[in-house]
Amino acid sequence: YKLGDEEWEIVWQLTGALLVFKDTTLFFSWSTPSLPMAIPAMDFIDGKLATFALDPEYDVSIFTALSLAKRTMNRYYDKTDHSEVYCIAIILHTWHKLVYFKKAGWQAMWITTVEQIFHNEFK
Predict the structure, then answer these.
(1) CA-to-CA distance for 13 and 64, rounded, in angstroms?
(2) At what angle do helices 60-79 and 5-28 cross, to 10 degrees?
């Protein structure tokens, strides 16, 4: 069986989309995976998937797969709301602190909530 031009185009589109997951997987495969990097990594993947979803050049099969991946990512992201440890870890991280949430575009109310969670934990 030989791939045609359209099929090769789909392969190239899929390769570009999967690179995001490869890079993230390799990052977390280091000898020191880091809890404070979980939410930033999810934000990174979510941003890439959102960008891909807006690209009209993608084949409908790739678009559908990326949409499902984004939905799955959002389900995992929602689960972080049930554990305060992620936000606390980000605040304690030397690179991030509260600045991460501001740079990531979190709403002011959410940032205030994260601050309150942190202060309540370390009273």
Answers:
(1) 12
(2) 20
Are 101 and 115 a contacting pair, CB within 8 Å? no
Could you write out the DSSP letters of every residue in the chain? ----HHHHHHHHHHHHHHHHHHHHHHHHTSSS--GGGHHHHHHHHHHHHHHHHT-TTS-HHHHHHHHHHHHHHHHHHHHGGG-THHHHHHHHSTTTTTHHHHHTT--HHHHHHHHHHHHHHT-
pLDDT digits 0-9 by tens, 71-107 = 999 999 899 888 999 999 999 998 899 999 999 999 9
Predicted model pTM: 0.81
State how far the Cα of 7 lies from the Cα of 109, in Å rounded to an integer: 47
